[in-house]
Amino acid sequence: MFSPAVRKPHLLHRRDKEEASPSPPPAPAAHTPSPRGFAVHDRPATGTPAPWTSSSLLARISTSTRTDRTGDSGQIQPVHVAEFPPKVRNAQANLLKKSFSGRRLLAGRIDKETSLAWMICGNELFIWSYLASVAEDCLVLEVPSSLMGNKDAKSLCGSQWTVCVMRWGSIGASTRNSGGMLHRRSSTGFILCNKRTQAIAYWPDIYAKSNKSPVLGSFGYDDTSSGDGTFGNCMINSLIAVAVPGGVNECIAIASEPTGTLWLFQCSPAAVHRREIQKGTLGVYDADHSHKNSGGRSLAWLPSKVSSEASERMFFLLTSHELQCWSISFLHDINCKKLGSQEIVGNDGDLGIKKDIAGQKNIWLLDMQIDEYGKEISILVATFCKDRVSGSNYTQYSLLTMLYKPNQKFSSEDNVTKTERFLEKKAPSQVIIPKARVEDEEFLFSMRLKTGGKPSGSVIILSGDGTATVAIYWRGSTRLYQFDLPWDAGKVLDASVIPSSDDRDEGSWVVLTEKAGVWAIPEKAVLVGGVEPPERSLSRKGSCNEAVAEEKRRNQAFNASVVPRRASSEAWSAGERQRPALAGIAQQAVVDEESEMLLNRLFHDFVLSGTVHEALQKLRAAGAFDKEGEMNIFVRISKSIVNTLSKHWTTTREAEFLASTIVSSLIEKQQKHEKFLQFLVLSKCHEELSSKQRAAMLTVMEHGEKLSGMIQLRELQNALSHQRSSTKLSPQSKDHSAGALWNLIQLVGEKARRNTVLLMDRDNAEVFYSRVSDIEDLLHCLSHQLQYIITGEEHPSVQMQRALELSNACLILVQAALCYREEHKDWYPSPEGLTTWNSQPVVRSGIWRVASFVMELLTGPVAADMSMKSNLWSQLEGLTDILLDAYIGLLTAKFERGEEHGVLVQEYCHRRDELLGSLYDLAKQIVDAKYQESAEVTDNLDLKESIFREVTSPILATAKRHEGYQTLWQICYDLSDTGLLRSLMHDSVGPHGGFSFFVFKQLLNRRQYAKLSRLGEEFQEELATFLKGRDDLLWLHEIYLNQFSSASETLHNCALLVSPEEDANLTSNRKQLSFVERKRFLYLSKIAAAAGKDAGYEGKITRIDADIRILNLQEEIVQHDPEYAQDKYTTKPVRPSELIEMCLKRDRELSLKAFEVFAWTSTSFRSSNRGLLEACWMNAADQDDWVSLSQESTSEGWGDKVIQESLQGTVLFNASRLCYSPDAVVYEGTFEEVLPVKKEDVYLRGLESRCLSVEEVLMQHKDFPDAGKLMMTAVIMGKELPYTITAAEPIEMDS
């Protein structure tokens, strides 16, 4: 493409040079197909490898022989992806016979979104998926004669065609890629446009079986806006299309002309209409040049995810000096409006490219591309310059990157378009070639720009002469990799990017050639095989790149190892001249390489001789045991053994031969891996690894597990293939694609092919069965893409059959690996803290995805055959076992490493309960079905129970092993088997009480207290521990255990419990107790204390009597006043202080009740509530009119007897007698200790610093100055008289 201004070396010299360089050995003659009809018979042996030479041969070379030191020549060569379909090859041969050489006769492109390639040969349009390893499924459409134009030579020119492809339906990238990997046909529209005549053929759905005739739109050459003939005889230079929202197979297409005219084509299954949306105008820029190319250069859609509204789409138009932003509205009618424009080439270099610089003669904006996120716009720029020193002319090619502002607000005026700044310059222009040959405009405007491929940040530039050049700024300089094909291979028609297998980074660059099929450019080919731009000009050193001067200085250590070479395919075989960039990395790489080569040689010697010669010492000295994990050389050798591609495999073989070859190759790998393990043991490397590098040794053993699982998986696929071939079905049903396992293998293999372009020429199944160490990819595919393997459109019976196939595959894979682990258990290192591959998140996620899908099918409303349900049930049972065992393994490893595992435990319990619950529900359906089949006229319950036990026995075992208590309980409950229940309670001892606690909770929720008590006879300690939070039931169990004192305490606490604690695990919680029930518990507590007769039981009985008295007092107080008749006071015990305050607020009768409450409380309570007690005495004094009583006694002259009789009716007298009389009943101590009667008693007891006396309290009363003597007389009389009322009577139990 970018040819420098010097003459190229003669082809003979070039051929000699290439022949001198190492190249892959040619394919054996026996495997070389016959030459194709169009090929030249004396094709040179060098240059681009022939498509039939397997490029994946390099992938089979051991990692030890493919290192940086031995060269990267294989990895910097293009990789042949796919050959043309036979139909295309035949059409090319026929066209070549009818035409003459030297003219581009073919047209073809690659559509990135759909992965479809198309090619026009004569009047036929061929469409196929270029990613298929064998592109046999090719669609042929006839190009209408009205589109071909005049029957002259120019009408056959391949450059006159342009195409737009629409994949109908709103599908995401992952859906599109998954469907493409399975090569499923989705409804696709196709627009074919003749650039010269603007004639359009529109196929609404190219895969429609009925009508394949296109809808034509012939508008005539004379109908166009410019009839003067434009550049290259092409009136349209860019065409883009998009689907109309809500329409059925409807789309619009936007076309631009070099003059600036924009056309809108509305395509529907009925017709194609055209209308002009912008008139072509002669630009005012560059008036010295022709105006015919001053208009539109390139069109590009802004990605839909960036658009603000779903009913609008935006696109950009690149002109000769600016970038225009347009909007299309689909509301009501399709309306196109120009939003704004921004100058790219102008006087401000900060906004774009500065013009009129010395030596600059002209600037062309050639093409543009927008990244998939709509953030960056890349523009290819060519600048015509003149060297002021030598006076020679040259062209400089550069790449300008602009950033789009997504939230830009444009002017709302319809008629006036203001120039808005919606772009920002990301960085100074990156110069691709500072000095290149001067080309004419026809060559310049034939260049096309592509972005998005690997390496990240690289672009590919296509030119009209059929070359493709990848450019990337890497390690401080621009590097070019030119893809050119010699002699008969033809020119490059188009380039694209291999779509990613998931929604992450894109893949490698891929190019479509005229005659050699489709080729991919590996990422390493660009990085290692790329060269600096040719013909650098020392006099214009500063023009290379304005943005990287500082970065160059920082990265000069990297640049020193790069040898400049010409930008051509000569760099393919020059990888051996590359040196590692950093000395430390290089030194480590050499050490690793030498130790790996030593291990390979020692193992090879062992295979030949069966002996080891001081292997352990040699490997220690070589540093073979220095690295852990995947970088360990033992792991790498083991991985290379199990991942080796067989040299005998080829996609041209028959399916039966390929199947047998795969199996034999896997067996060979297994035998070699066993040999490798024997070598490790005999050389004592196994002991070294098992003690110091356990993770590495485990990985080596897991390679054997995966290989064993892969062999069994292949046997399953063979069995399924034979089963289908022996069944009398339609030819379509006999194909492998009828199986879900085949589709799964295709998806996984295709993903590996896309991620490793060296394998692109290999069959998907071959790649899958070769990548043994990456078998987790199969589970990853199931986790994320199961919906594409089993689609919702399929019949439920078909879905069940396919789910059965996939679940069986997962079971066989994991069980074979676990069987290998059991057989070789003595070879494994100590497992403490190690995580096995089957416990990894990707494996668990894949198995869970399949299991959950099976559960959906089994619980769905669609009726299915019971035999199919039974088979699926068996598979679900197996999936449950391996999934729960994987969780247990991971939880054990995390616990041993001391890592947090709470979230994992929750996930494990949730999935365990869901799986076991689904299994048990379906098991009951299977039991009913079997009973219906075998039952006689009369009911046979014994037979049904026998069937039930037989069917549920595996569920019982799994639930017992994984503590699935709900399932265990349901089985025992449905069987009414208390013996089984008691046995499981003894066996299942886990955390939080195990199964016993679960059973107790279930009985408690069902209020089956009698059964709970009977279980307590056998599980005494367990039930006692469980009932610690349930005093209302615990006392019964304690009495059964003859623990009477504990039962008394439990009853006592339960009676006085204000509010029982609620248990979230119990649906049956305690209700509030009434006064009668509380007193009954207290009476029972009194009896239990008496029966226990422990030390101090009399005091316990006294305390219980006091609490009974307080309860009685509360009941009397509540009944006395209707205001207190609330649940708060009638069901819950009230604190004594609160009871006393209630009495203080009421009449004289309740005033004495306050002293009774004090009497039945403890000394500590009275001491801590002296103030409240003093308030009671003040309240008692308030209940009588002491002034009147004193005046009456004085005026009437009462005697002692009259005074005594009068004072006995006062509250002070009765309160004193109740608290201080000789016969007063007070619990625990006396009132004298807290509040003495007389003031002198305080000093006698030494309490003057702590309390007052009753006398001192009453002295504060308002009536004390007038009647104080009489008040104290009442108090002293009450203290001296005996207290003989009902307080001393025994307490009777309520009935």
From TrEMBL:
Alphabetically sorted, this entry's keywords are: Nucleus, Transport
Nucleoporin Nup133/Nup155-like N-terminal domain boundaries: 79-519
Q: Which InterPro entries does the entry link to?
A: Nucleoporin_Nup133/Nup155_N (IPR014908), Nup133-like (IPR037624), WD40/YVTN_repeat-like_dom_sf (IPR015943)
UniProt-annotated stretches for the region Disordered: 1-58
A Pfam family (short name) is Nucleoporin_N
Q: Which GO terms describe its molecular function?
A: structural constituent of nuclear pore
Where is this protein chiefly located? nucleus
> Where is the protein found, in the record's own terms?
Nucleus
Alphabetically, which GO biological process terms does the record hold?
Answer: poly(A)+ mRNA export from nucleus; protein import into nucleus; transcription-dependent tethering of RNA polymerase II gene DNA at nuclear periphery
Q: Which GO terms describe its cellular component?
A: nuclear pore outer ring
**Annotated protein name in UniProt:** Nucleoporin Nup133/Nup155-like N-terminal domain-containing protein
Q: Which organism is this protein's natural source? A: Leersia perrieri
